């Protein structure tokens, strides 16, 4: 049975998702309320990776992709679930139409969290912003990502 996957980081990029799980999947813009985007997940090179944390009144914009069980297994591998880099979490998102969907997303594992925000690499940030623009996420949200990353 297919499941919705909510992407908020570099998996917003259509090209990246095609490389990771193959041919294009149904995708819809969605928002997750009660969370905010941060770059506090430490990568192997010391740069920051996207993560979400609970925050009253905040919203994270992203995309829900319809994924098969096999697709999610592939994403698990790319997100380093086995090594504790990210963990899969069940969430509820809202589409522009107002419809709510049950979905899964990935939240950084505790052992990879930095005490403060880290600067993402330019390439990583460009991938996120390119994906956000491809899916036409709100302009003010895209600007907030750029500001968060210190651009």
Automatic annotation (TrEMBL):
Keyword Lyase among record annotations: yes
Binding residues annotated for substrate, in chain numbering: 5-10, 124
InterPro entries xrefs: G-Glutamylcylcotransferase, GGCT-like, GGCT-like_sf
Alphabetical list of CDD domains matching this protein: GGCT_like
Domain of life assignment: Bacteria
Gene3D superfamilies per record: Gamma-glutamyl cyclotransferase-like
Name of this chain's protein: AIG2 family protein
């Amino acid at each position: 049975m297919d499941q919705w996957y909510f992407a908020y980081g570099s998996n917003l990029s259509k090209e990246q998702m095609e490389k990771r799980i193959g041919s294009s999947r149904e995708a819809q813009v969605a928002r997750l309320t009660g969370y905010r985007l941060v770059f506090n997940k430490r990568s192997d090179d010391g740069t920051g990776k996207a993560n979400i944390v609970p925050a009253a009144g905040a919203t994270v914009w992203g995309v829900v992709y319809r994924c098969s069980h096999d697709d999610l297994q592939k994403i698990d591998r790319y997100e380093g679930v086995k090594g504790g880099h990210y963990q899969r979490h069940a969430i509820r998102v809202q589409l522009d139409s107002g419809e709510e969907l049950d979905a899964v997303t990935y939240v950084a594992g505790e052992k990879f969290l930095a005490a403060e925000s880290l600067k993402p690499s330019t390439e990583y940030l460009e991938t996120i912003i390119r994906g956000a623009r491809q899916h036409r996420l709100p302009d003010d949200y895209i600007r907030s990502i750029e500001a968060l990353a210190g651009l």
